[in-house]
Give the backbone structure.
Amino acid sequence: MVNRRLIRIKAFKVLFSAVSSGDSSIAEVEKNLVQSCTETLNLYYLMMNLAVALKGAADARISIGLSKLNPTEQEKNPNRKFSENSFSKYLMENAEFTKFCEKNGLVWRDELLGFVKKLYNTISEREYFTKYMESPEHSVKEDCKLFAKIYREELEDNEDLETILEDLSTTYNDDLSFVLGVILRNLDLFKKDGTLPAPKVFLKEDDREFAIELIRTSFHNYRRLYQLVKSNVDNWDSDRVVSTDMVLITMGIAEAITFPTIPVKVTMNEYVEISKYYSTINSKVFVNGLLNKIIKNMLSTGEIVKSGRGLVEN
């Protein structure tokens, strides 16, 4: 589930919080990082389960129409195509999926149903939804295409959803774009073979080890690496160096030291990319320049060792 780019982002946030507070332990930062990664998986299941909740909203509307004293012809003969969508039906009938969601409270009920109803009302007025409902075709491909539209166009930058997610977890909104991307890819898989993977917290088992070693080394060596960075900045003025930049640079150095099989170029590019989103407009130049300078020096002195063909940058 969680890839290495997201691990680095989460580790950066955990480390930044830890050094800012000044009272965290290694055990705490490790626990916080693993929990943050676990929350990404929880968000995935919550957002997948939204398909089931939307089906419920459609069913409720049909039931209300049928229960009227004088229903219209359309209410007496409702179009059940969305209610019978193969994607939401698969999720409802998947015992493993349902059990995970129920066990971890990843369901859209009670105070969240207002959002689901509002979202369904919005979707039902969209042109793509009208075309879907009017089309005589009823296939897995068409069902997946509809939900791909919903996940792609209705959920990111949705203020109501942002408010809900912020109340549920401090990490959910930051992870939403990533999770929606995973869902869209899995919809493509479902379209092909009618099944969905059951993701784990980490994409690969060694990614968990990477996460733990990265945060452990970065936190344990932060003061020493901070002084190293300080000694390499001309005309040092701590007030002029953005604190997020310091954390990113120290993490980049820690990664270069700890993982001999990760190319220097990969490490540098990753932290420069992260700086574009979590620091100032000029940070990418500062982070890139300082990381390049320090890592080159440490390669020459043997403090950083890279093994394997093509792993050492000239």
Q: What stands out?
A: The two ends are 34 Å apart (CA to CA). The chain has a mean pLDDT of 92. Residues 26-67 form the longest helix (42 residues).
